[in-house]
Amino acid sequence: MTATRQRAKAAPHLGAAAGLDDDELLAMYRMVALARAVDERMWILNRAGRIPFVISGQGHEGAQVGVTWALRKGHDWIAPFYRSIAMCMTFGMSARDIMLAQYARASDPSSGGRQMPGHYGDRRHNLLSVSSPVATQILHAVGIALAAKIRGTAQVALTAMGEGLSNQGDVHEALNFAAIHKLPFVFLVENNGYAISVPAVMELAVPDVAARAAGYGIPGVVVDGADVLACYVAAKTAIERARAGDGPTLIEAKVTRLTGHSSDDQQTKYRTEEEMALEKGRDALPRFRDQLRAAGILTPAVEAALTEEIAAIVTDATEFAEGEPDPEPSTAMRWVYAEDWPSETPPPWGFGEGDDDAGSGSEGGGPAAGGD
Amino acid sequence: MPTRTFIEAIRETIAGEMRRDESVIVLGEDVGKKGGVFLATDGLWAEFGSDRVIDTPLTESMIVGASIGAAVNGLRPIAEIQFADFIHPAFNQIVSEAARMRYRSNNAVGVPLTIRAPYGGGVHGALYHSQSVEAFFSHVPGLKVVVPSTPYDARGLLRSSIRDDDPVLFFEHKKMYRSVRGDVPDTDYVVPLGRAAITRPGTQVTVIAYGLMAHYALEAAERVEEEGISVEVVDLRTLRPLDKETVIGSVRKTGKCLVVYEDNRFGGYGAEVAATVAEEAFDYLDGPVTRIAGPDVPGVPYNHVLEDWFMVDPTKITAGIRKLAAY
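YS: structure for the whole thing
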């Protein structure tokens, strides 16, 4: 590391403007690369018929890692969305945690196998559970920020979504309220140019979602989502502002979507080959790698070790999740409420066919269901 | 024992809970200085300040959505929807988010949130200030739905709702705010959620009702008593979770069941009660499970003649009881 530091000194120091040292830069790059590797493995597993569904974050990782790096882990909150794989991993979720969700295993920390993959959440890391109705989470983040302000916790709440989601009415209601009360809130729009198949020109009458910030009297910042350090700096500024009580910021990171909307989407139907090839040039992963190589931080030796480590992590996560048990039907009625209610009875078929315990499980579950 | 109107009981209970627990906040439209359009939060802003009593913009989805977030981060919000009729913009937040958070996170995250809303007709409120919306929400696992009928129950149930770790919809019939009075002890009692009350014992017909209709059911029961019909009235108090035990127990005793609700008849909450009774007390029934409910029109009409036609009242319930008793 001494050698790399000396080399970095010779060139303009890459992290200097951002206040990041070489170790942190390397850790950030590792996270971008790891999230990509996990994501790519998800698609392989899907195409191999191992997991039914994938929704991807490929092309968004640089913005997600850069922005999330500026938050305080275990203190601040994130209400993520379905492309937030790199964000969630930066905030504490492991590759195993992500794969457990892909396989919908009982030990999946996001939902215990109840939700579709991509619906991340982890209470241990202040990551709020994702749902499928879009943009609802912005209000949750604003509410988290409201509680932080009232309780004086000095927490910042961040939410992330694509530009497609940003058209929902909840976004307007949330930004208005957050701005009125100067809440410690940061709104990250990861603009990848598409809402499934609908291009941005059909979604927005202005080139930048960030322009809308003016209507709420808050800063709206556009940043290149392929520039990890620029994303970090933008987020750092917004988070400091939020924590100081000066209110929310809208950060729009221009990113690219390298995959279809999901494993059920064929994007060649609405995007040309030329366009998709061009989009690859906006990928943060090779750009960040080149930056670190040029700065002498990512030496061939470091890179080789990292590649090996990441491959091992992804393989371990896959094998671990593959070997974990599915959730039991007998647990399927748990946690509708904090406590069980005698009147909330299981269906007539109980909790499983041919199960010796089905009789007791379905007690009172017949046509003359008692529940008493 | 002190006597209170329905709304006084609610107002004092909110204030009491806010004094008891500093994590309790109130937010909604006009809940601050004005104290709410019905004055349910009158005086709270002066006592607790604008940090804990928050006047919001006209944004029902935000009121509920931000309350969910605040609940996740350590508060116990009481969200006021000014009229139940205006709760629909928040439907997604209530049904997709608040109701499902605990289940979808496998118990990692709960939403301790109380949503108060005045409901019901008979107050010249027309289509959009008279609705009964309990059926929409009672349908959803994960939500608790409470409809008190007395100041005593309002206090005890509101305490339970605020202290509960799950989202509760607390519907208050606006016609009862000042017309209903009752004894309310100064003690820190609670009325547990999920328990109905037999408010009048009887032997021949069970009438199941809630909210304003629980009062009308009692009036109707009194009227038919002179005719020799003995009516047992069950006030559900909590619609979900439903107290099946009390409902079924009563119908097993009387053999006849009339379900009364103010909402439109088709697919109303009472339909679920009727189905439950039909399934679980069939062997005890001496007549069809019947309903007296609001007509199937899109809202309560404004004109007083039309409104009277719409509203279920003691006379209409009495007719339903007589018909059922004759089986």
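YS: worth flagging: Chain A is about 40% helix and 10% strand.
IM: good catch. Also Chain A touches chain B through 58 residues (CB under 8 Å).
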